[in-house]
């Protein structure tokens, strides 16, 4: 363990927004460091356990807030969370941002979105740039429908290459249109083959079982909060599936007044590389840069940590000083 990591501080905080309690973990090594709000994916899937398990050491350089979004983990309560909408999540994130700025006496903070979190993060950074130093998107969303078409194409090509005739036959039955999220065949194929073929959360050495082990071994959550996560994933998917199938993040957030960084795995087929590149090419920003991680899928900041941390420390953080 390095010297910085040995001094790490940890806080578990709760914040009430519109009568609903939101939970967050905050980690860092110095209150003088820049602050970064991490927007997790899903929707409804907090990623603190995965990041903790991977040993990512960015909290040596920034104070990181892992906020569980409305209906996720620490922030799940079916009686008080109300109707789940994208705008509500954006406004929730704005309140959390104000809390962090006030708590750590910062004029602006960094914003990091992963997967679904890039939808909320892109809108937030584009609409309210006065609060943020820069926006960083990993597993950046674009057009969700087109991304899923890319996924099916990847799965089919991989099945053919591997001579997996059973998988090929199953994948060919999938039809991608604006109602794909209702298709049980698609859900089955996505669940069965995306991780197996290396296009899921990580390129290699990851599974749904490993994800569950990370979650249930994470001591920061109470047992109730752990059990709330599967409930939140289901609730959030039901609330947002139709909207996700039809939206284009580049239309919802096309103009940025702060620097934008996109961190994308070449083998990402949860939010496809092609759609992330289209998002990047479509937006305007005073400065923007896209980093391609050649050996990663959906989580390049965890899969190729050494490369990511060099970029994070020596380019993203250093450029804003």
UniProtKB/TrEMBL annotation:
Residues forming coiled coils: none
Endpoints of the signal sequence: none
GO biological process: proteolysis
Entry-linked Gene3D superfamilies: alpha/beta hydrolase
GO MF term set: aminopeptidase activity; carboxylic ester hydrolase activity
Similarity annotation: Belongs to the peptidase S33 family.
The protein's name: Alpha/beta fold hydrolase
